[in-house]
Specification:
This protein has 209 residues and is mostly helical. The protein is globular.
Amino acid sequence: MTIMTPAPFALADSAALYGALMAAVADAGDPDSHVFACILSARATDGADPLDDAVGLAPAELDRLLSKHFPALAGRGSSVAVYLAARRGRRQGRGVADLVLAEEMDDLRTLLLDHVTAPADEAVWLASMVARACLFSNHLWQDLGLTGRKDLSGLLLRHFGPLAEKNTGDMKWKKFFYKQLCDREGLNLCKAPSCGVCTDFKLCFGPEE
């Protein structure tokens, strides 16, 4: 599927798209709107998968998110709306690797949804978006397009508090999620009896800047 990239948002111009999205929010002080603007601007400008796939949402879910948090885009006459519309879509064709990744994403989404702080559309959307971002290769806050780990920890505590509070050792979030999945299955893939004596300690803990 060929994705067009109309002006004014060139590839990697995520800051400009973020600013344009924040100009269309329903509530500029809402931390979730900031998070959604970060995620959408990062994934829409990276030139990879179509936007719906890249953020892990079904088209109808993304429609609802945009309508609720960015109502000024509803007329679809703005350059932002035109740009996003051109980036929308689902990738055609699914191979074995896609099915494996889809199952992995489902496991991560279920883990998050099993620890929702309070029922809300935002929690459902973020569970999918965070699960999708876990399949990328950078630190989770980077793959979500956030400004830092503090942003990520904030959204996790807001919406998935019972899970986030289990991370008492400040483990890197991707490592923490996968360790939780292993614990659920009764698996122990660590090569040391405790984190404190593990030679890979710095891979699981420490700065993420």
